[in-house]
Design brief:
Length: 400
């Protein structure tokens, strides 16, 4: 039986979802900057590079782990699934109509990953979405069930891996267990500080490894989040059709649970001196805690829209969310300029967490005002316009 999607006022739908998407894009930068600025394992083991002394650096890491974690990327995937419903109702009858659009997104993601940043999210999203879009004809209950099932199964695999990893003895550090001895770190730093071309081969190899890991081990989570996004739209949860009481309870419970779980894992990892077992256990807590955080933030944003709270803040985030891929790519370009050598500044491995926090805040402000300014003149962000034009096979109208 097919569930009829609630009637949604376009302005309400786009305002609430765009604001949440803008929040997700900005939240991802707070996590991703660690992967741009240092070797990627430093996100889990912050004392590996630069200074981690003092309460400020530790507070930045703990706050990021506890309040943001992977929630930005989770929300981005959920909202990508929501867009599969909102942008193409015809896909219920012929899901393959979405494939040209997703194929061009895949190409943009590949260029982003292999030329600029190995941590790209668009490639796995596009590949998984090509399969997930076929679920558009499922019932809402089926979408909820399958989505939660895939997320749970992936979590069990991660939990099993953590259990096996806990067998690593205390005579080796977590970084060394993953191949990051001091000589390897020094070599990577030299590549990044030398320049864009010098580190290109390393970035490509890590991009390939990252994509394989995402597709083989984490595609269940990505697919599950997209399915929940589809269910969230069709059930009315993401579009403001539930009661204020429901949203309030979900936001309070989910945010409290997410913060407690994520903070507990991060604190345990810090207190243990980042032992291999504690680092792997923290990954598990971040996996599950970030799901609760994402749910809580989604409910809180929809509730704020219903109550008409923080209108200016929501409008600012909505501007970022209306051109999410452009802002996502811009973050990569800025990070590449800051942390990679010629023609950039080559600050890889040199900026501590307090410095990273200041960079993040500065870019947040710039992207909010830049997005507002851009959308006063253009209908889409530059990358969104290019994507639409490629998918349609003709140049799309751009100016307002």
């Amino acid at each position: 039986m097919r569930v009829k999607m609630p009637e949604i006022a376009p302005s309400q739908r786009h305002d609430s979802l765009d604001a949440l998407r803008g929040f997700a894009v900005l939240a991802m930068l707070a996590v991703n900057i660690q992967l741009f600025a240092w070797v990627w394992i430093s996100a889990d083991i912050p004392a590996l590079q630069a200074s981690f002394e003092g309460w400020g650096n530790r507070a930045v890491w703990l706050v990021t782990q506890s309040l943001i974690s992977q929630s930005g990327a989770t929300l981005f995937a959920v909202l990508f699934g929501a867009a599969l419903v909102l942008s193409a109702q015809a896909a219920r009858d012929n899901p393959l109509r979405q494939w040209p659009r997703l194929s061009w997104l895949l190409l943009l993601g590949l260029l982003h990953a292999y030329l600029f940043w190995f941590g790209d999210l668009l490639v796995p999203l596009a590949l998984v979405a090509m399969i997930v879009v076929t679920a558009n004809s499922m019932t809402v209950r089926g979408l909820w069930g399958l989505g939660l099932g895939l997320i749970g199964f992936t979590g069990l695999m991660l939990l099993a891996g953590s259990g096996i990893g806990s067998l690593i003895g205390g005579n080796i550090t977590a970084a060394e267990a993953m191949g990051f001895n001091p000589e390897a770190i020094t070599h990577i730093e030299a590549l990044y500080q030398t320049g864009f071309l010098a580190r290109l081969g390393y970035n490509m190899s890590i991009a390939l490894q990252s994509e394989m890991m995402q597709i083989v081990f984490m595609s269940g989570r990505l697919a599950g989040c997209m399915l929940l996004g589809m269910a969230g739209v069709r059930s009315g949860f993401l579009t403001g059709h539930w009661t204020q009481r429901q949203y309030g309870l979900i936001a309070a419970i989910a945010l409290a649970l997410g913060v407690i779980v994520c903070a507990a894992g991060a604190w345990h990892s810090l207190a243990s001196g980042f032992s291999p077992a504690a680092v792997l256990q923290n990954r598990v807590t971040q996996y599950f805690g970030s799901l609760a955080l994402a749910l809580g933030y989604a409910a809180a944003f929809v509730l704020a829209a219903q109550l008409d709270l923080a209108r200016a803040g929501r409008a600012a985030l909505a501007a970022v969310g209306r051109m999410p891929i452009s802002n996502y790519f811009l973050q990569t370009l800025l990070m590449t300029f800051l942390f990679v050598g010629f023609p950039g500044l080559g600050q890889f491995g040199q900026v501590d967490r307090l410095g990273q926090a200041l960079i993040v805040l500065s870019i947040w402000v710039a992207q909010v005002f830049g997005s507002i300014f851009w959308l006063q003149r253009y209908q889409y962000g530059p990358v969104e316009w290019l994507w639409r034009s490629l998918a349609a096979g003709r140049v799309q109208a751009w100016l307002r």
